[in-house]
């Protein structure tokens, strides 16, 4: 039994509320985010006595839950003393998931200028997936700069600097955080939708249980589970709309996970996918993908390698891997690219600094105040990295290219040493 639980409250019709208890640590090795759900309850009302009886029934369901050591709750959970009394051995803390969801919704309701809203939401995404003190302080400062002082109190930005709230979450890796938030989002949104239909709790639970026992079974379109699955494909969406939404999710995942230079390269590759006809053939140990010009083979395990030049050299998702993601309606995951291109604390710092420095040179406009020696040092470091991290054949190819450039720009080989 997990020692950390998250308590989620969803409002329903006629003032009723659904309480969902979920695993807050590593998810059980089962299919989908629903594996996190351990208990559902609908109290008669939300008085202290009624909630105490509900929590007591949860503990009675299996006495092992008395060993729970941490309870994560959303802001505004009714009658918190009733929860603390039912689990006297547990600490009760504000849930990072609820905090970030609330902050996201409030920011979107503020109707900020487009660029300001995008900056804040991007910083929030970084904070959710890499909850370092640096990211949290950056988010706090950004809100202080871009939101008017009279609106700041309702955002409770002091929560961002509360180490106690983030203590559990900040130990997660980028990938673990992404999976955690995705699981909770899918489950809480789905169950909230099912509960809001007004059907009895028993009917909802029965339909959900039948579906997860046999996911391949056909569902009555009017059933709660069918409506739950429809969150990914709302009724009436055309194929073009589904494709567009998938493409936007892939682009966003590239921006969220990759450093800026890597994201630029991959977005250019994805632009080719969007404009071309893709032929995908499945084999036993590889996927054969043809995107306009030629065919290459993608390893289906993890989708992290391809036979094409781009993937072999840069170790980034190429047009062929992105074509598979697009076809399967999936998004980029951190393990699909080399660490040096990943955002966050797990990235290879030296590689990231080199890429970021190279990007600064490319973006800068030439003027007299620009220090030429700085430009030379950046370019030299990048060229050295490209020459030392490649096969012998690739080295020969790159060296010949540099030799030709040197000869054409600054003189013949006999006079200029490369």
UniProtKB/TrEMBL annotation:
Phylogenetic lineage: Eukaryota, Metazoa, Chordata, Craniata, Vertebrata
Spell out the PROSITE patterns in the cross-references. Answer: ZF_SWIM (PS50966)
Note the PANTHER family from the entry. SWIM-TYPE DOMAIN-CONTAINING PROTEIN, ZINC FINGER SWIM DOMAIN-CONTAINING PROTEIN 1
Annotated SWIM-type domain ranges read 287-329
Listed A to Z, the keywords are: Metal-binding, Zinc, Zinc-finger
Question: What is the annotated signal peptide range for this record?
Answer: none
Where does the record place the region Disordered? 215-242
Stated name of the protein: Zinc finger SWIM domain-containing protein 1
Alphabetically, the GO molecular function entries are: zinc ion binding
Which InterPro entries does this one have? Zinc_finger_SWIM, Znf_SWIM, ZSWIM1-3_helical, ZSWIM1-3_RNaseH-like, ZSWIM1/3_C
